[in-house]
Amino acid sequence: MSNNLSFLAGGGDVGRLIASYEWGGTALGPIDSWPEARRTAIAMVLRAPVPVALLLGPDGVMIYNDGYAGIALGRGRHPACLGASVLTAWPEVAAFNAEVLRVVLAGGTLSFRNHELGLMRDGAEEKVWFNLDYSPLPDARGEIVGVLVLVTEISERARFERAIVEDRARLRQMFEQAPSFMALLSGPEHVFELTNTAYRQLIGHRDVLGLRVREGLPELAGQGFFELLDRVYASGEPYVGRGVKVLLQATPDSPAEARTLDFVYQPVRDGGGGVTGIFVQGVDISDRIAAEHARAASEHQFRTFAQTMPNHVWVAGLDGGQTWVNDRMHDYAGMTPGALCGFGWRGTIHPDDLAETDVRWKESVATGAPYEREDRRRRHDGAWRWHLSRAVLIHDCDGLPRCWIGTSTDIDDQKLVEQALRDSELRLRLSQEAAGIASFEVDVATGDVMGSERLWALWGLPQATRVPLAVFERLVLPEDRLAPWSETGPRDGTAAKNVEYRIRRGDTGEERWIARHVEYLRDAAGRPVKMFGVMRDVTDAKQSEIRQQTLTHELAHRIKNILATVSAIASQTLRDTDLATARAAFDTRLQALARGHDILNASRWTTASLGGVVEAGLGPFPGERITINGPDLAIGPRRALTLALAVNELGTNALKYGALGDNGGHVSVAWWREDTADGPRLVWRWAEAGGPAVSAPERRGFGRFLLERVLAADFGGSVRIAFAPGGVECILTAPWPPTQWED
Amino acid sequence: MRERETVLVVEDEALILFTISDELRHAGYHVHEAQDADEALRLLASDDPVGLLFTDIDMPGSMDGLGLAHMVRDRWPLVRIIVTSGKAVPDPAALPEGSRFLAKPYTSGAVVEAVRGMLA
């Protein structure tokens, strides 16, 4: 590098490139021929710390420094653009540059701000912003020979400004969306500069921007706000208002509405500290105030209500401690207000109940489950009375638990009545059980039956709470079916009050007699609503009644037959004799009949033993002179009676005339079975011996009638009487066995 | 008395049967005695025509007195009938038409009178 290139020394990388560049082929000509002024200009450009370029000659041949090289390299133009026309080096902006050349070469200047360009820095492209200034470059004679291009990087400031814009937008957004209302008033007349959404909502979305407060919100006149703003503006002192009432219109035509606000008037100052406006910021607390009022009112209402209630009413916190109790509770306990609060109420609970009450209450407090508990509470006079306490957890409108509200009701009297009722019910049930009485009720509307345990047992049905009437009706015997109630009986109230009918038990099918008594419960109109009743199994009574009836009939029949017999005996006895003889005979015959009856009574009139009848029949006669001998034989009642009468006739005759008389003698009564060609026969023999000689009487009296006809007929056989010298012999021969008929 | 009427007395109790029979004989009637319905039917079928049947209802055997009375009404419609019983008075509709009921106990006189009334 020769001396004449010394102007490039200290020109950096581009300086070295210029030195080695072949300038001969350019419009500038060889570097040695360059005029001094150009050299000086180039030297200054190369040393400039900011990007500078020269556009030389009418074509704008480019010479620039390292700073500008960075920019050109960023576009892929360096070093190609060095020594090239700006019009060909930047073809995409050729028209722009042509205009630059035309204006500046003619002596004008051009400036462009905030021009964005990419720049290679540290091997990476970076977006940068520039200000571009074009000014004329004169030669030594003052002629314009080129354009000086100053490139000023403004990236940092651009970025800063951009950040400010973004911040402002963000602030603006925050301002707009802030839940509190805000407005910016400027100047002593308080002109609306800005309002946010909340503020616009507060003033009914009126467009007040650019208006003075007095114009924008005329309804505030007389409420003191304009004066306040004036004072803040004048004094520079902020004003804070709390719970301030204001009447605002939603629209110019609508009536003013009262709102309650918390707000600040904050003076806004310029750089010099002078007040330029007022920032208004605040919160509309009307709804909160209304809610607070409502809550206070409801609280007041609750307490008033709670005070008038006869029950104990209390409020407890979420920890279970009572926060409020009504006066009734203090009065009852005889304690000063407040003494029951917290857990003071525990002192009034009976020691035996306290542990369980604590457990239950803690459980409810822990789980939020409704509380219910009966315990004894001490009255001021020391009496322990049963109380039923109930409490529920109250939630606020957000569903969060707030407190417990509880009541305690004196149920002591009720408890006593209940106990008494239980006792009496138990007594009734026990007595019903003992008496075998079942109780039941029928719901007329549904036809459902409810009954005591005994009812189901009585009918042999499984225990149930309620079953249709038909279940019972089905078990009634068909022939008795209309007895319990007519078709419509249970419904129209015409069922008979007292009936007896038969059922077939549901479980065993056994036939039982049921006695039923019912009463109707009727409504005001007299329509039956419920049928109450009791039932009893009267089967045993019924059977014994039937037995009793049979017995009564039997007895009546027997008595009539006895009377018929007695009548016959009387008729026979009285025939052809004197009254005195007849009376005596009749008497002994009745006694004989009675003895026969005694024997039959002993066997309940089934059968009697033949020997027994003979023995009893001969009871009044001297037994030591009578022998009785024969097998054990059963005979029916009629034969027994006839035999008793027959024995009496024989004995009486023997006593009067034969072997049982004073002259001594002996009677043998014997019977046995005798097998004959016609089959087995009963032979019964009365034989007298050792007595006086007897002869057949002249007339046939009752004795012979009875023996020969009645005894023979009743035994279905024949009787032979022999008047032998040694005494009477009477032999009955009859079919064996002597009992053919049940009678 | 126009002629000797025959009365058939049916009664299972011999004492009563014979007592009644004796009374009727004493009153001049011809009397047959039977202790049950079977025997009574046998006697009815015999040559001696029966003018009146006097029967107890309550009798053992294959047929009681009421059955006998109805059978007699059917087969011997001219025979007069008196029915007697110590049990409850039967429903008049249960008795054969034209028959009469005499409750036990009766006196011999009452029986004779009833028989005489029926045969008059």
TrEMBL record, chain A:
Domain PAS span(s) in chain numbering: 298-368
EC number(s) stated in the UniProt entry for this protein: 2.7.13.3
UniProt key word Kinase: yes
Pfam families (alphabetical): HWE_HK, PAS_3, PAS_4
Domain PAC, chain residue ranges per copy: 113-166, 371-423, 497-550
Record's catalysed reaction(s): ATP + protein L-histidine = ADP + protein N-phospho-L-histidine
UniProt KW Nucleotide-binding keyword: yes
CDD domains from the UniProt entry: PAS
Keywords: ATP-binding, Chromophore, Flavoprotein, FMN, Kinase, Nucleotide-binding, Phosphoprotein, Photoreceptor protein, Receptor, Repeat, Sensory transduction, Transferase, Virulence
A Gene Ontology molecular function term of the record: ATP binding
PROSITE patterns xref list: PAC (PS50113), PAS (PS50112)
Record-given protein name: histidine kinase
Source organism per UniProt: Amaricoccus macauensis
UniProtKB/TrEMBL annotation, chain B:
PANTHER family (UniProt xref): STRESS RESPONSE REGULATOR PROTEIN 1, TWO-COMPONENT RESPONSE REGULATOR
Record bears the keyword Phosphoprotein: yes
Record-linked SMART domains: REC
One protein family per Pfam: Response_reg
Keyword Phosphoprotein in annotation: yes
Protein name per the record: CheY-like chemotaxis protein
Organism: Amaricoccus macauensis
InterPro entries the record matches: Bact_response_regulator, CheY-like_superfamily, Sig_transdc_resp-reg_receiver
Domain Response regulatory span(s) in chain numbering: 6-119
GO biological process, one term: phosphorelay signal transduction system
4-aspartylphosphate modifications at: D56
Keywords, ordered alphabetically: Phosphoprotein
Gene3D superfamilies, alphabetized: 3.40.50.2300
Annotated PROSITE patterns: RESPONSE_REGULATORY (PS50110)
